[in-house]
UniProtKB/TrEMBL annotation:
Name of the protein: CDP-diacylglycerol--glycerol-3-phosphate 3-phosphatidyltransferase
Enzyme Commission code(s) on record: 2.7.8.5
Keywords: Lipid biosynthesis, Lipid metabolism, Membrane, Phospholipid biosynthesis, Phospholipid metabolism, Transferase, Transmembrane, Transmembrane helix
Transmembrane segments: 12-31, 43-62, 83-105, 164-182
Catalysed reactions listed for this entry: a CDP-1,2-diacyl-sn-glycerol + sn-glycerol 3-phosphate = a 1,2-diacyl-sn-glycero-3-phospho-(1'-sn-glycero-3'-phosphate) + CMP + H(+)
The gene coding this protein: pgsA
Species assigned in the record: Tigheibacillus halophilus
């Protein structure tokens, strides 16, 4: 297994740690960040999410620069992203920071695209992420990061940046999903 794939695997292993931080009632105190409090454990979990998210850029950059792109990496990298994003979105609904219907739409798109990838894999094809898909991922990661940090630093001015970014991410999620299916419809049409 090459280094980019190991980095991707490390992102997958960070997900349970992130979930534990977000669900276990650690009493680490909190900071006042303007109009609300930011529990220290949420801050640590948010930073862990950001670090895990950055590994997506690092493994992709390293794989392209050193020509280490593999079919395993093309499969594992988006899967790791989906697992991380899905865990964070579900936890944001539990926290009351994200509307459930938005999360359902985002996760539905992710499952649909994953299903299409599995059909393609059964046909011996690997479908790489598109530029719209990368934009979708970037907007999701920004929205989730800000929401995990209780809208910090925008909470000082009462501006709902995290929620606005979540709706922007929803737009790009839907758009990239439609684009992905239109461009790869032949996979569904020609599957045996």
């Amino acid at each position: 297994m090459n280094i980019p794939n190991k980095i991707t695997l490390s992102r997958i292993f960070l997900i349970p740690v992130f979930i534990i931080l977000m669900t276990v009632d650690f009493q680490w105190g909190s900071w006042n960040i303007g109009t609300r409090d930011l529990p220290v454990v949420d801050f640590v979990a948010g930073l862990l999410f950001i670090i895990a998210s950055m590994t997506d850029w690092i493994d992709g950059y390293y794989a392209r620069k050193y020509k280490l792109v593999t079919n395993l990496g093309k499969f594992m990298d988006p899967l790791a992203d989906k697992l991380l994003v899905a865990a964070a979105l579900v936890l944001l609904v539990q926290m009351g920071a994200a509307p459930a219907w938005v999360v359902i739409v985002i996760l539905s798109r992710e499952f649909a695209v994953t299903g299409l990838r599995l059909v393609a894999a059964g046909e011996g094809l690997v479908l790489a992420a598109s530029k719209l898909g990368k934009l979708k991922t970037m907007t999701q990661l920004i929205a989730i990061s800000v929401l995990l940090l209780h809208n910090f630093p925008f909470s000082y001015i009462g501006f709902p940046f995290g929620l606005i970014m979540l709706y922007i991410a929803l737009f790009f999620t839907a758009l990239s999903g439609v684009d992905y299916f239109v461009k790869n419809w032949h996979v569904m049409r020609d599957s045996k």
